[in-house]
Structures are given as C-alpha cells and as structure tokens.
Amino acid sequence: MQIFSLCLLLSSYFIYNSMGVIDEQAIDDLHLVLNLAQHIHVKSRRKTEEEKRTDLSLYFPIFLWVLRDFHLSLADEKGQSISEKEYLERALRPNPGHEEKNQLREVIKDLFRERDCVTIVRPVAEEADLRNIQQVPYEKLRPQFRTQVEAFVKKVYTYLKPKKIDGNVVTGRMFVDLASEYCKAINGSAVPTIHAAWASVVQHQFRLALRDAVQVYRQRMNERAMQHLPMAEEKLRDLHKIAKAEALKTLFATKLEHDPRFRECRSQFAARVKQLLEHVRTENANSSARVCDKLAKELFKQMEQKTYQGFNDLLLEWEQVKQLYLSKAAGPSRLEVLSGYLNSQLLQSTQKLWEELQVGAEERKSLLKQQLAESEARILQLKAPEDAQRQLLTERLDFERRLDEARRSAEAAAQKAAREKAQLLDAERTLKEQMKIMQDRLNSEQRRGTQSSALSSAAAVHSTQLGVPKSELDSLKDSVMQMLTELRSKELQRNQLQMQVEHDKQLIALERTFQKQLQEARARSEQLVEQLRNSYEKEVETLKSQRVELVEQNKDLERKLSSSQQELKLLSRHLDEAREASRAQQRQVEVSQQQSEMLLAVLEKLGGPKEDAEDFKGQV
C-alpha cells in the first residue's frame, strides 16, 4: 500500500500491469484503491470519502492498464470491433449482483479521470520458449506482440507529460524534495498530505530560487557596476534593470509563478535587490565623491597655476575647467561637487583675482608716479648742462685771457733777451779784441821773463831802463784779471740768456700745443653741447609722450578696475542665482521623492507587487 501510494503521488503517468483479461478477479486485485483515500490526503481537514476521491483525482496521474498475454478479441456483444479504451470502460461498468466490486469500479473511475488500456498478446507461442523468454531475440518474438509493444511505447511517449501539482510543473529538484517529504510522512506512520508536502517543496524551491536569483543579481552588479564605479545614476539604473531581469529569469525558472506563495517570494526578492541596490548606490556615491573631489582639486590646482589678465580670462578658463570636469566626472556627486567645491573655489579665485588686480593697479599707479617723478627729475637734470656750458665758456674766456697775458709777457721777455744778447755780443767782441791785445803783450812779457832768477835784478834794472815801471805792470795784470773775470761773467750771462731763449722756445711750443688742444677742446665742447641739446630735446619729447601714455594707462587701468568691479558683482549675482537654482532643484528632488513615496504607498495599498513599486520609485 505504501509503495502503491508513493507511485501514485510521484508519477504523472501510472502504468498498471496485469495478466489476462479484465474480470472480477482483476478488479478485485485493485482493492488497494479503496484505501487510497485513507492513506493519502489532499488537505489536512476532514472530508467525506467522495470529496476525498474528488480531490485526489485532481492530483492523480494518467492511468494506463496494460493487459499482458491478452487472448480475447476486442468485440462487443454484436461482434463489432471495439477499441482497447472502450474495452476498459465496458469492464468498469457496474455488474449487477457484485455490489462490492461495483464500488471498487466507481472508485477507480473517480480517482482516475484520465484512463486508457493496452492489450498485448503472449510474446511466443511455445511454452518452452516462454520459459526461456530472456534468451529469445526480439526479432524471434511474435510479430503481433512486437507491433502491440511498439504501439504501447508510442502511446506512452505520446501522452507522457511532466508531473504537475496545482498547475505547476515539478522539476527534478522539486521531485527529489517531494519524494523526501512523502517518504518522511510514510516512514513516520503519518498520512501523506499532498498540499502540505507540496507547500514544503514549494517553499524550499522558493528559498533556493530566491538564493540563486539574489546571487545572480549580486554577481551581475559586481561584474558590471561595482568594478566600474563611479558611474552615472542612469547607467547604474539600467544595469540594475538588466541584472534584475536576469535574476527574475532564475526566479521564474521554478515555473511556480501561479502559486500564491510566489508573490511573497518575489517581494522578498525585491527587498533583497533593493538592499543590494542601495549598497551599490552608496558605494557609487562615495566613489563618485572621492573621484570628483580629486578631479576638481586637480583641475583647480592647474587653474591656480595660470595667470589671468582680467575676469574675462578667468571666466573663460572656468568654463573650460567646467566642461572638462563634466566630461570626466561621473556619478551622483558630479553636480554636487561642481555646485559645492568648484563654485566656492571660483568665488575664492574671483576674490583673489580682484585683490591681485587691485594690488597690481596700485603698484602700477605707484610705479607710474615714480616714473613721472624720475622723468621730471631727469628733465631738471637735463637743464644743468646749459649752466655747465655757460661755466665752461666763462672758464675758457678766462683761460684765453690769461693765455694772452702769458703770450705778451713771453714776447716782452724775448725782446729783452734779444737786446741783451746783442749787447752781450758787442761786449764780447770788445773783450775779445782787448784780450787779444793783452795776450800779445802778455806773451811778449813772458818771453822776456824766461831768463834766470840771477838776472831778475838785471831784468828789473833792464825794465827800468826800458822805461816800464813795475806799478804799471801790476796795474796791467789787475786789468787783465778784471777783464778775465768780466769775461767769465759775460760768458755766464750768455749761457743764462741761451737757457732763457731755450725756455722761451719751449714755452712758445707749449703755447702752440695748448692752442691746438684748446681748439680741439672747443670743438669737442661745442659738439658735446650740441649732442646734449639734441639728446635733451629728444628725452624731453620721449618723457612727454611717456607721460601722456602713463596718464592714458592710468585711466585705462581705472576703467578696467571699474569694469572688473562690475564683472565681480555680475559674477556674484550669477553665483547667487546658481545657488538658488541648486536649492530649488534640491527642493524639487525632495518633493519628487515625497511624491514617489506617496505613490509607492498607494501602490502597496492597491495590492500591486512591491517590486513593481520599487521599480517605479527607482524610475522617479
């Protein structure tokens, strides 16, 4: 009874073998069917036997009665041929006088709503061959037997279909779990309950399917999302939908979507997927914040290294940085970092540029004032060469005057020297004549005085006798000595005059050299004065033009400063508008989130699937 019950509970096509024809004995052999309602329950609550049979018929398999060694011809009372199924139905009709067997017939018809019959003759005709049937080749069996067997096999495979419970196909894993539940109940001396066993199997299948589906979703999100963070929220939502669709395929692979418990399983799946999605979104937001913050700092650092001439350059560079940031940044923190960090840094850069421009303007203004003061000083310095020129002319005139006086003195000295020279020459000629006379006289006297000392007295007497007195001789000697002295003195004066003449010659040569140098100096001075005048005039013109340019630059700087102030005000106004727009967007997002939560609550109250509501919330 246990094996019979287990076969009926597990099979989708029940094949019952019996020998011979369907007679009262064959019907009686199926007496186990009478007790099926007692040994198998559809549900645990109590019902009548008829209700139990009706419920069991919904879960029982197709019944195929195979009649082995069938020897009758299939014909009715009139001799007309009938089918095997008609033969079965005729055999299950009530037979008067056999009430107990008739009850069994009714039970068979109630339990097996789909039933059929197959008849097969003996495989061999000889008894000896029948005893050794296992050794007889298939080709040696009776042709009618082979034809009936092949028709039987074809019928089985034609009407064979998967086992179903409550319209749900039983898979291989579910079949094992279902057999385990039935055996557990039978071995525990309990009555197998189809619904309880099926509920346990379905619940177990749902747990496995939920685990597998969640694992598929987690694996797909790890491969396609977690390893490529950060990414845009739209792309993450698309990957979520794809991963969820693939996971739902695993969940729907149980073929139990019509089971009431499938809604609960799908709700649990939606909750697990929502939890995993929130984790991925959190990681995406954190990764996006890190990457975007790092990118923003790098771009702003590059921006800080550049110099800007004005706010237009700064705004142009900022626009380029903004476009570059938007092209590289990704993730939900993309706009948040842009509106937060970069906008604040832009404001600081604007303030810094404003301060630098103001300091630069002040420095240029001070420099222009200094250059103007230096130019005025240089103009004053350039006027000094005129005074120097006048002083040089005065000194030159004084020098020329002194030079003329020196020239006149030199000329007077030269004339005086010439007169004295002439006098000296006359005196020299006179002295030479006198010296010649005196020399002649001296020579004659010396010749006379060469006599011996013994004759000195004689000489004296002789000289006396000659009439030349001694005093005259001494006087002559003195005159000669005096003349020699005068001659030496004249010679000395002549040397002095010659030296004076040489000195005068050198003085004249120096005077000529001085005159030449003076003329050259005068020419150079005039040339220098002309150069200084030209340079002064050019410098004055240059300084005047520079002064005009500096004044214009100062005015231009003041205009730029005013324009920069206006641009700063405009930029501050734009920044305030951007912040206000960001706050408005934030408020809109909050309102949208509240609306989505309200819609989600409405959907849940309406009884829609939670996962559909979650998808709707994600789309919002």
UniProtKB/TrEMBL annotation:
Residues 441-466 are annotated as: Disordered. Residues 1-161 form the GB1/RHD3-type G domain. Keywords: Coiled coil, GTP-binding, Hydrolase, Nucleotide-binding, Signal. Residues 480-595 form a coiled coil. Residues 1-20 form the signal peptide. Pfam families: GBP, GBP_C. Gene3D superfamilies: Guanylate-binding protein, C-terminal domain (1.20.1000.10), P-loop containing nucleotide triphosphate hydrolases (3.40.50.300). Belongs to the TRAFAC class dynamin-like GTPase superfamily. GB1/RHD3 GTPase family. PANTHER family: GUANYLATE BINDING PROTEIN. This is GB1/RHD3-type G domain-containing protein. It comes from Durusdinium trenchii.
